[in-house]
alcohol dehydrogenase (NADP(+))
Amino acid sequence: MTTVAAYAAPAAKAPLERTTIERRAVGEFDVLIDIKFAGICHSDIHQAREGWGEAIFPMVPGHEIAGVVSEVGPGVTRFQVGDRVGVGCMVDSCRECENCKAGDEQYCVKGATMTYNGIGKDGEPTQGGYSEKVVVDENYVLRIPDGLSLDVAAPLLCAGITTYSPLKHWGAGPGKKVAVLGMGGLGHMAVKIAHALGAEVTVLSQSLRKKDDGLKLGADHYYATSDPKTFEELQGSFDLIVSTVSASLDFGAFLSLLKTRGALVNVGAPEEPVSLNLFSVIGGGKTLAGSMIGGIAETQEMLDFCAEHGLGAEIELISADRINEAYERVLASDVRYRFVIDTATI
């Protein structure tokens, strides 16, 4: 066991505070990672404040982890000391079910082991990236290409794959019109990736205050959803809408923006149930879908794609003692576009 410094929420809705946690000894197939940077995802706030249901405390959040390998187990073949690596939202799965064998470990039938707020196979709670080090099985560690700086790569381990996976699955590319709903931590990566895939990209945001940013990041068009004329002008326009917002939506209004057989895919997860008139999907043969991160192989594919196209997250680097301030600013939409913790400050 190794004792490391970390920032943890001691209880639901409590401010995060500096503490120490124990990391397991490096096993035969384990990799010890010196964490250099950890992104702050809105999911961290949902879970630390029990917005998505009962959680495990004390909780060290963080599933956007970038660092350097400092030790490997004797059976490790994929990594060596000094490698630049990342860890995303999961650190294990059953490896035996149909989904795991198909490379969809995130949909493990028995339930993937999440990087934090989960229970590992040893029966102990998992703790995340707001810490100095982490021990992870090599099969759930990603290689960060040399073309990506570790600080801007960290958010790709959640925000990048969460948007890349549905864009790929629903065929975003040349000749396709894609709308990104929301221009935050997820949305800004969705814009970058959809543009790099060759799609015609439109941002749908509450206001136009981020319009200049959206166009610089690769959007072709930018509309305010607070303007009723937006829904009149864009009716029937899109092949795909990726919703990155975690607030309840008027799904009927947004489904009306889809072409026949278009898809509205949710990657943001509101804390409250939503309502839907099914005629919104029946008329036009439309799809209302969801998507959750991606498998390990697809996450590596995303990292390689981002490196090839020079796509890192737009970040604000902070010291660890500003985590609680950052949480409040995320809730106020006051970040462009991802807070990243310099873990040397923990």
Notes: The chain has a mean pLDDT of 97. The first strand starts at residue 2 and ends at 8.
